[in-house]
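Field log, afternoon session.

UNIT: design team B
ACTIVITY: writing a sequence onto a fixed backbone
BACKBONE:
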């Protein structure tokens, strides 16, 4: 069974930086894309970023482009999301996710992902 565990969330001031991590276990981590999503109470889960199996491709939501960076370390079975220049509207619960199969193009929709972590809360104070 695939398990994803996020860590690293917390409280940060506007303009600050924070890095969240996603540790994977249960299968060969390096074969599949990884994604980060975020969700506020009462809202739909929103795509943030995705990275291909070999880190050769990345994609970002327009709202975070230029501020967030997704990376992965296949030797450590871990994906990361570095968040810079944080804004109050970045406040959300952040989830990592992975797919059950390989993809040619990086998937953006929550329904494209099959395995999810429990989420880690990021709060950006004004």
């Amino acid at each position: 069974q695939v398990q994803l565990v996020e860590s690293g969330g917390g409280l940060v001031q506007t303009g600050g930086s924070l890095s969240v991590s996603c540790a994977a276990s249960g299968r060969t981590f390096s074969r599949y894309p990884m994604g980060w999503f975020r969700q506020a109470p009462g809202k739909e889960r929103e795509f943030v970023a995705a990275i291909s199996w070999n880190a050769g491709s990345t994609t970002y939501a327009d709202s975070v482009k230029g501020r967030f960076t997704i990376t992965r370390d296949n030797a450590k079975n871990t994906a990361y999301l570095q968040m810079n220049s944080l804004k109050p509207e970045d406040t959300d619960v952040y989830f990592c996710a992975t797919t059950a199969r390989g993809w040619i193009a990086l998937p953006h929709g929550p329904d494209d992902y099959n395995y999810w972590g429990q989420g880690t809360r990021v709060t950006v104070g004004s």
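LOG NOTE: Residues 51 and 95 are 14 Å apart (CA to CA).
NEXT ACTIVITY: expression trials, pending approval
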